[in-house]
Specification:
The complex is a heterotrimer of chains A (346), B (353) and C (554). Chain B has 353 residues and is of the alpha+beta class. The N and C termini of chain B lie close together (11 Å). Chain C has a two-stranded antiparallel ribbon with strand order 1-2. In chain C, 75% of the residues lie in helices and 1% in strands. Chain C has 24 helices and two strands. Chain C is globular and about 70 Å long. Chain C is mostly helical and 554 residues long. In chain C, β1 and β2 form a beta hairpin. Classes of the chains: A alpha/beta (346), B alpha+beta (353), C mainly alpha (554). At the B-C interface, β6 and α3 of B face α8 and α9 of C.
């Protein structure tokens, strides 16, 4: 009985004290691909009394650029989604304040790229070649086992990649080739790309077009059985009737590039404590276990339980390509420009 | 020269022309006169080839034009709104038809000058047509129609958009220009004064039917149908109630008429004052008297309440005033038998010279 | 009376204030940040632009493809305009409405539609391979200049068709008939009479199509592939990925300068399009000769192939899974399963889109009517500039403006960066030119003597507006309103920047669904696209009902 008339009062109180409500609202700045289950987020909100407002603004690059531009008056309190390919730009701009979460000690060191803890790792994904299983079976074609295999004549006209200037997996794949073939010597990454062009590689602007439009197993009308995608993509091609995935990823050594996504607390936030609570939340089992099906990546927490379909169909490369984010930051534009000239304006 | 044979046109299921027969002779100016919506413009468009016919044919020098497209007919057509090409100057407008004929530039320039001279616009070659006065535009449109020397010139209310003063001045000018150029012309108007002034022959067109064809004077003097009489402003039309041999009985008296006829017209020009006691005198009270310069219009109310109009020559002195009694009598030849329907409307024959 | 006048004065300023806050101020802010980051003007972007072969090529390609697209569009739309301006036939207005649909579709969807039709595994190639016993698809259009041009025509055909046929309908038919009587026929009739008479409309259509294709983004990005880059694509690349703001600003300024010139040309031409209206009955005829039937049929076939085949392919796909008819994708739209990419069931986006569209319509109509009223009354050089300025949002890169919002609208009372109000503002900015272009011709065709008569009879200027102008332009206002509505429904670029996750719009949902792997997401994206089409269809049919002979363009 009491509850019934208490509610309107509560609501009224809420309306009449917007300042208080303001204090409770934490704004999360993130990219287009961010997702979290409603109930997971709701649990956090109920527990802490913090309301989370999510602000998605373009892809990862656009988001970081926006954050850099609005540094003096940040759009939000927490930024999630900066990965190792853009981390340097964000750190150079002093976007974040350091925070060492108590949960961080459970996270493997390989993910903890910033010794100052200005950013905290949340998830990782490997950009790998994906292939159409049916196509390779039917053509009785062996799978490529290294990046240099891709320039062989039997793979001519089979591969579709993304433009590194406009696509995150595209950039990751370019970085992998830079790391594998190097910038100096007899055969550099530029030579490799020239050979790929000669081997009729197809370039799209974004992942969507490559995967849905050009890939043979993406649901569209594509003609390319090899695509640059994620190691976590195959679970989503499982046929309901057969229970089999139509695609798989190639996880051979030094063919995949590991992307690690970070969260950071934006400098200048008046809600430091709430922001720290949110970072802790992102490392908590609830959030970590929610990550795979929401964002198609792997949680950094080694003990987070993976969903069944991930265990069954998502493979993890043993030796992925890793590259120092400072090096990436220093030369990213140079590599992209070189790539553009070799691949697009040849 | 040009013959229209049993032409029928329907538009959206409504008859517009219901069997038109018409002939125009060489060098003649024929005028199509009638109220708006009577089908005059449609007939022009049929002759020009712009309108398809349901039935019937148009012949030129005895040859059917059925298969000849608009641009090969070699006719001229001038619209009421002149339809001058706004993107061309005066010379290019006038020279348009010549260009289509494939004439070279010098020849074109000569003929354009000639045509402009004919309409009195020499020196206007380079002017912008959108900046001309109404009268000037009319002349340019006329020159444009004349320049290719059409086999037949058609003018659709060519003076209709001009003011009265200008119109009266231009009617005679247009006639003399057409005559000077030696053209055959078909001229559409709804204004009888304009028609009388310009035409060698007039065809009265009403509701898709030709009511009467004849010389202007003949039409005015002896209208053949009730419609023609009324359209020409001859309102003394008395329905015939019965016949006594050659005598047609009406509410104001009986008149000697050649049957068949359904009504009698007492031509207002042929009513003369007479004594009350004269046989055949029509007496009544003057209800209105209007001075028009050369004539008075006198309105007379007969005892049957029929209103009679007579034209009183002002040279004969002033007519009786309003309220006075007056008796009149028609001259010989001014009692005219009128038909309800045009007589043999399908075979009206034009003036042949 | 005094209050009325005071309010009136203020109201007049509303559109300008709106434009200043939501367009000029953010744009100038981002340009300043880009070109003078430390207070020092840095023009290296411009220097690179001139000296680098790469950018010169980009600029050249942008011009070139826009010019060719414009010519192609006009070449195909002109015969179509002839058919629509000269003949009446059943289903005409519905057809014209449908022809305008492509204009609203997000590029991703159009790309999917075209690939379903002419892709290597599309309907056309399948059919050709089956019937000609070929082993490889004979039609290879993907990633070619040809597909860019085809899709540009697909998008802009109706724009040109509408502008030219509306004008043509009002060109005195006697002019053409006079020419025919004087001996013109065939190509001479076209060359010496029709084309010169239509010149203002053709040029206006050309200017508008050029504007749309010059700033082409998605079509070039997705269908053309990375080999082709327009200025707009390059601005996006430089801003979003390379973070080379000086370069992006230089490119933006070049683009806006070109566009402003084209818009000025267009608005100037539009003023000449205000013609005395000729009742449609006088110019419209039912076809009679076999040739006329032939011309009409040919144009309808062209429209069917160019415009409706891709749309049909799209709709067809949304109803099929593995070659079988299914409603699954539509059913899925109503649910929000765990693992969905959205915070809300996708169908919620329909409601959101409708709400934003209604708000946008209200705002755009109010501001547009005021601005048009103002521009129609005062004909000075200054209003001509302003007229073009209102068109400029159409030519501004969404990412540039988005960044402008981030840095400009960040302080109270304009701290709108995270407010849904910004969606409405952004949509209004894009819808406003359409409203103004609908209303201005109608306002300009009101004879001043009508307004003067009302003044003499004692009406205040406010009463003249309410009692005379408003009823006279009400039809074009409705047209403008529905344009605003549909533009808002289809808007994507700006929405992506400002829409919040809990309030996604339909194009955003399509985009998000396409961003996830798996045929289920793909199917839902197509289903949502079909719903968007249906909503737009309904709105456009409504336009056609109210338009009739009133003088709107587009």
């Amino acid at each position: 009985m009491m509850v019934r008339w208490l509610w309107p009062l509560l609501v009224l109180g809420f309306i009449l004290h917007p300042a208080q409500a303001q204090e409770q609202t934490l704004t999360l700045l993130t990219h287009d691909s961010f997702n979290v289950s409603e109930e997971v987020l709701a649990a956090f909100e109920a527990e802490t009394g913090i309301t989370v407002q999510i602000l998605r603004s373009g892809d990862a690059g656009t988001m970081v650029n926006q954050a850099v531009l609005s540094k003096s008056n940040p759009l939000g309190d927490v930024l999630f989604g900066v990965d190792n390919t853009f981390l340097g730009r964000a750190l150079d701009a002093d976007l974040f304040v350091p925070y060492e979460s108590p949960l961080l000690e459970q996270i493997p060191d390989v993910f903890r790229l910033d010794p100052e803890n200005r950013v905290t790792p949340v998830d990782y994904g490997d950009v790998c070649l994906n292939y159409d299983k049916a196509y390779f079976e039917k053509a009785e074609l062996p799978l490529p086992e290294s990046l240099s295999d891709l320039t062989k004549p039997e793979y001519k006209g089979l591969l579709v990649v993304q433009n590194p200037a406009t696509s995150s997996p595209g950039l990751a794949f370019l970085l992998a080739t830079v790391a594998v073939f190097g910038e100096t010597g007899d055969y550099t990454y530029m030579d490799f790309w020239a050979d790929l062009v000669a081997n009729d590689v197809l370039v799209t602007e974004g992942w969507e077009d490559a995967y849905f439009g050009q890939f043979t197993a993406g649901g569209g009308d594509g003609t390319r059985p090899l695509v640059v995608s994620y190691a976590s993509s195959p679970p989503f091609t499982v046929d309901e009737k057969t229970g089999e995935a139509a695609t798989a990823s190639i996880v051979a050594d030094m063919t995949c590039f590991r992307q690690i996504e970070f969260v950071g607390i934006l400098a200048g936030t008046p809600r430091l404590e709430a922001a720290q609570q949110f970072v802790d939340f992102m490392l908590s089992p609830a959030f970590q276990e929610d990550v795979p099906l929401q964002m198609y990546v792997f949680p950094v927490h080694p003990e987070a339980a993976l969903p069944e379909m991930f265990v069954q169909f998502a493979q993890l490369p043993e030796v992925p390509v890793v590259m120092d984010f400072d090096r990436i930051n220093a030369d990213r534009e140079k590599w992209i420009q070189a790539w553009t000239e070799i691949v697009l304006r040849s | 020269m040009l013959a229209v044979r049993s032409v029928i046109v329907n538009y959206e299921g409504q008859p517009v022309l219901r069997g038109i027969d018409l002939e125009i002779a060489h060098g003649q100016i024929m005028c199509l006169l009638g109220p708006s919506g009577g089908g005059k413009s449609t007939l022009l468009r049929v002759i020009a080839g712009l309108e398809a016919v349901e039935a019937g044919d148009v012949l030129y020098e005895g040859q059917s034009l059925a298969g000849v497209p608009v641009h090969r007919r070699g006719f001229g057509l001038m619209f009421q709104d002149f339809a001058l090409f706004p993107h061309l100057n005066v010379a290019d407008n006038v020279g348009f038809g010549l260009k289509m004929q494939g004439l070279n530039r010098d020849e074109r320039r000569r003929r354009v000058q000639e045509a402009l001279a004919l309409v009195g616009l020499s020196g206007f070659e380079q002017r912008d047509v959108t900046r001309l006065s109404g009268g000037e535009r009319q002349r340019v449109a006329l020159a444009r129609s004349l320049a290719p020397r059409p086999r037949l010139l058609m003018l659709d209310e060519p003076l209709g958009s001009l003011d009265v003063v200008l119109r009266e001045r231009l009617v005679e000018e247009v006639r003399s220009i057409i005559k000077q150029a030696g053209l055959t012309a078909l001229y559409v108007t709804h204004d009888q004064r304009e028609a009388f002034a310009i035409a060698d022959s007039i065809a009265i067109l009403n509701a898709g039917v030709i009511e009467q064809v004849g010389e202007p004077e003949a039409i005015y003097r002896r209208p053949a149908t009730i419609f023609t009489a009324r359209f020409l402003g001859l309102h003394n039309v008395l329905p015939i109630m019965s016949w006594q041999g050659q005598q047609a009985e009406t509410i104001v008296g009986s008149f000697a008429i050649q049957p068949p006829a359904e009504a009698v017209l007492l031509h207002p020009d042929g009513l003369r004052p007479c004594a009350d006691s004269d046989s055949g005198a029509i007496a009544g009270q003057v209800t209105a008297r209007t001075f028009l310069g050369d004539v008075y219009h006198v309105q007379l109310r007969h005892s049957s309440d029929f209103e009679l109009l007579l034209r009183w020559n002002s040279a004969d002195g002033a007519p009786p005033g309003v309220g006075d009694l007056l008796a009149v009598k028609p001259n010989a030849g001014s009692c005219i038998g009128l038909r309800e329907q045009p007589h043999g409307s399908r075979s009206a024959v034009g003036f042949v010279s | 009376m005094r209050l009325e006048r005071l309010v009136g004065r203020r109201l007049v300023l509303a559109p300008i204030v709106f434009l200043a806050i939501f367009f000029v101020y953010p744009l100038v802010s981002i340009l300043i940040v880009s070109l003078a980051p430390q207070g020092q003007i840095d023009l290296t972007g411009f220097v690179t632009l001139v000296t680098s072969n790469y950018y010169r090529q980009t600029l050249w390609f942008t011009f070139w493809q826009a010019a060719v697209s414009t010519l192609l569009t006009l070449a195909l739309a002109l015969p179509g305009a002839y058919v629509f301006a000269r003949f009446s036939f059943p289903g005409k207005s519905v057809l014209l409405a449908l022809a305008t649909l492509p204009f609203l579709l997000p590029t991703v969807v159009v790309a999917a539609a075209f690939s379903a039709l002419v892709g290597p595994r599309g309907v056309l190639n399948q059919w050709l391979m089956d019937s000609l016993q070929l082993t490889s698809p004979p039609v290879e259009l993907e990633r070619t200049l040809a597909i860019i041009l085809i899709v540009h025509v697909f998008y802009n055909y109706a724009v040109a068709l509408r502008i030219i046929s509306t004008y043509w309908l009002n060109v005195n038919l006697r002019l053409e008939e006079s020419a025919r009587v004087l001996g013109a026929y065939g190509w001479r009739l076209w060359w010496d009479v029709r084309l010169p008479l239509l010149r203002p409309a053709i040029l206006a259509a050309a200017a508008l199509v050029f504007v749309f294709t010059f700033t082409s983004f998605g079509v070039v990005l997705i269908l053309g592939g990375p080999r082709f880059a327009t200025l707009e694509v390059e601005i996006y690349r430089q801003t979003a990925h390379l973070f080379n703001l000086p370069m992006a600003a230089a490119l933006s300024l070049v683009q806006m300068a070109v566009m402003f010139a084209m818009m000025s040309l267009y608005t100037r031409l539009q003023r000449r399009l205000a013609l005395e209206r000729v009742p449609a009955e006088q110019t419209l005829r039912r076809p009679r000769t076999p040739l006329q039937y032939g011309i009409i049929t040919l144009n309808l076939v062209l429209m069917a192939v160019l415009l409706f085949a891709p749309l049909a392919a799209l709709v067809g796909r949304s109803f099929s899974a593995g070659g079988q008819f299914t409603l699954t994708y539509y059913q899925m739209l109503a649910t929000n399963p765990r693992g969905s990419v959205l915070f809300v069931p996708p169908l919620q986006a329909v409601t959101n889109s409708l709400v934003f569209a209604v708000l946008t319509t209200g705002l755009a109509i109010s501001l547009g009517a005021i601005a048009a009223h103002w521009l129609a009354r005062r004909a000075s050089r200054w209003t001509a500039w302003l007229d073009s300025l209102f068109m400029l949002p159409l030519a501004t890169s969404a990412v540039t403006l988005g960044f402008g919002y981030i840095i400009a609208l960040d302080r109270p009372p304009l701290n709108l960066r995270t407010s849904p109000a910004l969606i409405v503002a952004a949509h209004t900015l894009v819808a406003l030119p359409f409203v103004m272009r609908s209303v201005l011709p109608a306002l300009r065709s009101i004879t001043p003597s009508i307004q003067e008569s009302a003044r003499v009879l004692g009406a205040s200027s406010w009463q003249v507006w309410r009692l005379i102008d408003l009823p006279l332009i009400s039809r074009s206002l409705v047209t403008g309103a529905i344009f605003a509505f549909t533009v808002s429904l289809g808007e994507f670029g700006a929405s992506l920047f400002v829409a919040r996750p809990n309030t996604p719009t339909m194009p955003i949902v399509i985009y998000r669904l396409l961003g996830q792997p798996g045929p289920a997401n793909y199917g839902q994206a197509l289903a949502m696209s079909t719903l968007l089409l249906a909503a737009a269809c309904a709105a456009f049919l409504l336009i056609e009902r109210v338009r009739r002979a009133n003088g709107s363009e587009f």
